[in-house]
Amino acid sequence: MLPKTESACFVIADISGYTSFLAGVELDHAHDIIADVMDTVVRCLRPLFRLAKFEGDAAFFYAVNDKVDGSLLQDAIESAYFAFRKRLRNISQATSCQCSACRDIQKLDLKFVSHHGEFIKHRMAGREELAGRDVIVIHRLLKNAVNERLGGHAYALYSDPCIQQWASIHSRRVSSSTESRSTSSAT
């Protein structure tokens, strides 16, 4: 049986500064810090999004079509970002450790990339994986010049198909709302 094609909103939350952070710090504390803040991000993006998988310094999420409109997506990303920053601050304030990892955690930041498209699920080595052209596209969107243009600051990048999907959902909701008001006022 062939896998069923599904439509979804994809989000990748990626830690900026991860490579340089790991290169210059103690791995045992760095690992705990990264695991802690990534757990915070995952908890903020659920239940709206489903975690597809962790990818080192990133988490790949998806939500099946029509669950996510622009305001929900933006709210989820903002919530995850502020929870990430707050968690970094709390870890920093709660520790008396002076190792490089604990001193440098405020150098980490978070960027988001979002895209809308199609995928299929398939099993590989006993794990469910997402595959398809749009899964490749969202990963390629991470390779951009936004970080350099913003001077290394956090950002959220939305692809054109993602924004077009928001507009489509919004116009369907407005049309549906207008139709129900017309029907109720005509009776």
Keywords, separated by commas or semicolons:
alpha+beta; Alpha-Beta Plaits; 7 helices; six-stranded mixed β-sheet; 187 residues
Describe the model.
The structure is a single chain. The protein has 187 residues and is α+β, with helices and mostly antiparallel strands. The protein has a single domain, classed as Alpha-Beta Plaits, CATH 3.30.70.1230. It has seven helices and six strands, in the order E-H-H-E-E-H-H-E-E-H-H-E-H. It has helices at 18-23, 27-45, 70-94, 100-103, 133-141, 146-149, 160-186; strands at residues 6-16, 50-54, 58-64, 109-124, 127-131, 155-158. Strands 1, 2, 3, 4, 5 and 6 form a six-stranded mixed β-sheet that branches. Strand 4 (109-124) and strand 5 form a beta hairpin. Helix 2 (27-45) runs antiparallel to helix 3.
Brief rundown of the structure:
The chain is an alpha+beta fold and 187 residues long. Helix content is 50%, strand content 26%.
- Helix proportion range: 40-55%
Between the first and last Cα atoms, what is the distance in angstroms?
49 Å
Low-confidence region ranges? 180-184
Largest sheet: 6 strands, mixed
Integer tally of domains: 1
Helix/sheet category: alpha+beta
Proportion of residues in β-strands: 25-35%
Lay out the secondary structure.
Layout: E1 6-16, H1 18-23, H2 27-45, E2 50-54, E3 58-64, H3 70-94, H4 100-103, E4 109-124, E5 127-131, H5 133-141, H6 146-149, E6 155-158, H7 160-186
Parallel strand pairs: 4-6
Antiparallel strand pairs: 1-3, 1-4, 2-3, 4-5
Helix pairs in contact: 2-3
